[in-house]
Amino acid sequence: MKKRKTTVLLFLTTVSFLILSLAKKEKDKWIPIFNGKNLKNWTVKISGHEVGDNYKNTFRVEDGMLKVSYDNYDKFDNKFAHIFYNEKLTNYRLRLEYKFVGKQQEGGPWWGYLNSGIMLHSESPQTMDLNQPFPTSIEAQLLASDKNSNDERFRGRSTASVCTPGTHIEFNKELITDHCTISNSQAFDGEEWVNIEVEVNNGVFKHFVNGNLAIEYSNAVLDEKDAHTAKLIEGGISKKLTSGYIALQGESHGLSIRKIELLRLDL
Questions:
Q1: Measured distance CA(213)–CA(196) in Å, rounded
Q2: pTM value?
Q3: Are the C-beta atoms of 251 and 117 separated by less than 8 Å?
Q4: CA 16 to CA 25: how far, in whole Å?
């Protein structure tokens, strides 16, 4: 009888170990959230246009890549664009590769040159105003440098900084109300593929560039002085930003993105 009990105990222990191992494997599994074929599970919102209107085919899939393209535009005309992954997320890691391509579209803002971003903990596209340029969110900024530019603002600038449309963050334990906080990443010139990974976990945000930590901050909150964000608060959204959507940005410069993958941390 004692031998039988021991055998049963060993069996149960083995089963438990296998279940835990499978659960850990599933938790540690990166999954693609862009299929390289179409925009399934993504929603477009472009300033001045209704949700879902992919004006002039700004976002498109070519050669297995998600592209931000302005080849159908005559001028930019403040058509700030975002494409949202349809699942609301809390704790996760996101990674992708990006590079800027071509020239900036005529009429784009000076700061839009070699500039784009990943919006984190964003509001949904459905809650954005028709002419709203940027969703209330935290932005992991994507930048490239131009070492040949006559404008020093475009030379040697880092990528993966953080910007805060309608929000504030804590950096080095201080509340930051400035729009952007600069990362310590290296600069990348021209049309060069860059790997960026962001981690959002229990209120702490981390940006990694080619595997190296570029910036860390925490405790994102809504900016009550921002008119649109104030409306969100009145509608019942918590002032503490603990979840939201991922969006990829178009700010007047062509962009190619590939290998968009997600690792959920709260399974």
A1: 10
A2: 0.89
A3: yes
A4: 14
